[in-house]
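Running this now, will post back.
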Amino acid sequence: MTGLLPELKRFERIDLSRMSCHGAACCKAVRHRVFGRLMQYANMGAALAAVPELIRWGPVRWPAHWCDLPEGDGLTGDCGVHADVAAAVLTREAVPHIRGRAVLRPAPLAPAHWRASWTEAGAADAWIAGRVVHHEVIRVGDQWWDPSEARWFSGVGAHLSGGRVLAVREEHGSWQLDPEASATHALP
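Update: finished.
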């Protein structure tokens, strides 16, 4: 697993995403649209599940403002946008949570595809390493929430659509490494 350690250090330098507001009507309108739609759901779980439906996954240039999300007739945001919006829903409902990050090992061709998409959009691709990627998640109690997939996962060793979870870390916490991955999925 020694090949993963440099990537963990690299990913630690990525700030967790926080949406910004210009304080003008452009950002206020988009933010109001997002939370107006999410608060229409009967319960918090449904609102959390609606985040990636409302904001489709795609490239974002950071630092991002609310008015950067509209694209065509919809909204586009990456896992950082999803995590920040989901955290705001949890905060509004007074649910204790902590932001976090996961390191995923995706399918072999995925990093090159994602890098090309982010480059084409003029967005930074620091979240993409050679064989692993950085992904923003949320910890609620003893479970992890993937705001881009709108589902719970158990932590290291879990499989998400983005790949196998090799490591997780609460904001300001220590990395938890998948012991099985350290033996069988060491990076060169």
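Residues 25-38 form the longest helix (14 residues). More later if anyone needs it.
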